[in-house]
Amino acid sequence: MDLTAERQSVPLSDGNHIPLLGLGTYGDPRTTPRGTALECVKLAIDVGYRHFDGALVYFNEHEVGQAIREKIADGTVQRKDIFYCGKLWNTFHPPELVNQLWRGH
């Protein structure tokens, strides 16, 4: 495994690579101002992060997604460069609920 500064990732069995360092996007929704995740993810992409950790219960996935879309649109990254790790609470595992959440309903 090549873990040099140029290649800070681990290969997966499907041929993709997951970056070793990722940015966690949790912020307490009661105390974190809206837009914080959006700006943090955009800045993180600008400085080289490509791995992002999020979850439905963080209540900011829309901001994380918007930041990634904006950085793709401005040419900073391509979708294939981003590794997003999302977590789904156990009560949302039935297929009909996963589909609703995935589609943003």
From TrEMBL:
<dbReference type="InterPro" id="IPR023210">
    <property type="entry name" value="NADP_OxRdtase_dom"/>
</dbReference>
<dbReference type="InterPro" id="IPR018170">
    <property type="entry name" value="Aldo/ket_reductase_CS"/>
</dbReference>
<feature type="domain" description="NADP-dependent oxidoreductase">
    <location>
        <begin position="21"/>
        <end position="89"/>
    </location>
</feature>
<dbReference type="Pfam" id="PF00248">
    <property type="entry name" value="Aldo_ket_red"/>
</dbReference>
<comment type="similarity">
    <text>Belongs to the aldo/keto reductase family.</text>
</comment>
<protein>
    <submittedName>
        <fullName>Aldo-keto reductase family 1 member D1</fullName>
    </submittedName>
</protein>
<dbReference type="GO" id="GO:0016491">
    <property type="term" value="F:oxidoreductase activity"/>
</dbReference>
<dbReference type="InterPro" id="IPR020471">
    <property type="entry name" value="AKR"/>
</dbReference>
<dbReference type="InterPro" id="IPR036812">
    <property type="entry name" value="NAD(P)_OxRdtase_dom_sf"/>
</dbReference>
